[in-house]
Design brief:
Helices cover 74% and strands 0% of the residues. It has 447 residues and is mainly alpha-helical.
Length: 447
């Protein structure tokens, strides 16, 4: 797998983990608990009830969380058309409606309470919680913000404000709100995860790494944090560290399919073939319905290990109906197996089928050229290699193959041209030495 492809895999995995602005996992909070706990009043900071209201309040306050329907009937019986209830009574009535599942009526009562008494801090909080629970994040933001300006310093208020801001794409104030929440509750995983999503989105690698380390330390059994950390390391191009981390995750028995799959991909990219094969097989054993691309990667790793029968067994596990991409990869893998076994005509037949599906497939053209070259059919090999040469991803390999063909044809000047073309793409000592030897043949031919 190419480096840019691996980084793309890393980038694609993050949203699956819930670490994106669109798919962030909601905080694990109980809205009813927050609202029920707000039933006590703050002296000298909130509206007062009438004597009659307070007498009833004392009787029903404990019932709201345990017998909300009965408490609601008692509270509603207090209301009359002649004199509206106090904002404080409306707030308690709103809590009772919410506890009974009547959120529309609860919203009306909370709204009335804050409109009549704008500094009613807890009514603003509970209204915000109501909107948050209904995923009306745009409506929740001004409620939590108002509570903060009124002096609320509860970490939950800051955390919920941060989450709502994050969901609306306001990442800068969301970051500040999450940090305020963590300053009051530094071990809260919900707020750490929220801040982690912000850091990942903003590519703040060092900060993201620090946070995910703390999350792993606090919750080591949650594989998604290990996978997130591995992806952070990959974005920072620290592949060997990512391998070591995932090996630790696997060694502790935490790693699941996603973690093992990424570890196997990294092993394959680093050409640690035995390790890649063993890890792919673990994934396959635990997940019979493994995706076609994972199976094909396993087959490629087995080909590199010269395990022909095992390769065939893996290919046999593929479903009869493949995706268009899967069909191309399947034919290429079968061809690679036959080429490794030096079965040139059979390999060529698979590659020709592939070209019917993907006519300008440079990798297939390169493979066909190699089968012809192995049979010393140099004109056809040249034609195939020249086709592959047009694809920039395969120009280097095709240039080396054409250099070999021209050497066999004793066209030393052309061989030099192709080697120099390859060296412009990637300079290696082996190709430079090869070029130096060909140049001596050019000189001898001139003499």
């Amino acid at each position: 797998m190419k480096s840019h492809q691996l980084l793309l895999v890393a980038a694609l995995l993050l949203p699956v983990l819930g670490f994106s602005d669109d798919d962030g996992a909601p905080p694990k909070l109980d809205p009813k608990r927050i609202i029920n706990e707000s039933n006590g009043f703050l002296k000298e900071r909130e509206p007062e009830m009438s004597a009659e209201e307070y007498a009833l309040y004392e009787k029903v306050v404990e019932m709201i969380s345990t017998q909300p329907d009965f408490a609601l009937k008692l509270l509603e019986a207090m209301i009359n058309d002649k004199e509206p209830p106090s904002p404080a009574f409306e707030f308690i009535l709103g809590n009772a409606y919410y506890a009974a599942g009547q959120t529309a009526k609860a919203e009306v009562k909370y709204r009335s309470a804050v409109n009549r008494y704008p500094t009613f801090l807890r009514a603003w909080v509970d209204l915000g919680v109501l909107y948050y629970a209904a995923e009306k994040f745009t409506d929740a933001i001004p409620c939590f913000s108002k509570a903060v300006t009124l002096g609320d310093r509860d970490p939950n208020t800051f955390g919920l404000l941060g989450y709502c801001l994050e969901k609306m794409g306001n990442v800068v104030p969301a970051e500040m709100a999450y940090m305020q929440a963590l300053s009051g509750d530094p071990t809260n995983g919900d707020w750490m995860e929220g801040l982690l999503r912000i850091y990942i989105q903003g590519k703040q690698i060092a900060r993201a790494e620090s946070l995910v380390k703390n999350l792993i330390k606090a919750r080591p059994k949650e594989a998604r944090f290990w996978l997130t950390y591995a992806n952070i390391l990959l974005v920072d191009r620290r592949k060997l560290e990512a391998i070591a981390l995932l090996e630790t995750c696997a060694g502790t028995g935490v790693a699941g399919v996603d973690e093992l799959s990424l570890l196997a991909d990294l092993y394959a990219e680093q050409k640690l073939v035995p390790e890649a094969v063993a890890t792919y097989q673990k994934v396959l054993a635990n997940t019979p319905g493994l995706g076609e691309q994972k199976l094909l990667r396993l087959a490629q790793a087995l080909i590199a290990e010269h395990q022909w029968q095992q390769t065939q067994d893996v290919l046999a596990k593929l479903p009869e109906k493949l995706s268009s991409e899967g069909e191309i990869s399947f034919l290429q893998t079968k061809a690679d197996l036959l080429i490794a076994q030096k079965k040139w005509p059979e390999a060529r037949a698979q590659l020709q089928k592939l070209l019917q599906l993907s006519p300008l497939n440079a990798r297939a053209l390169l493979g066909i050229g190699r089968t012809y070259a192995a049979e010393d059919d140099l004109p056809r090999a040249t034609f195939a290699f020249e086709g592959a040469l047009q694809n920039s991803e395969f120009t280097y390999a095709a240039s080396l193959e054409l250099a070999n063909v021209e050497l066999k044809n004793r066209h030393y000047d052309k061989s030099v041209e192709y080697l120099e073309k390859a060296l412009k793409i990637e300079r290696t000592s082996a190709v430079e030495d090869y070029l130096a030897r060909i140049k001596t043949l050019v000189v001898k031919k001139a003499d």
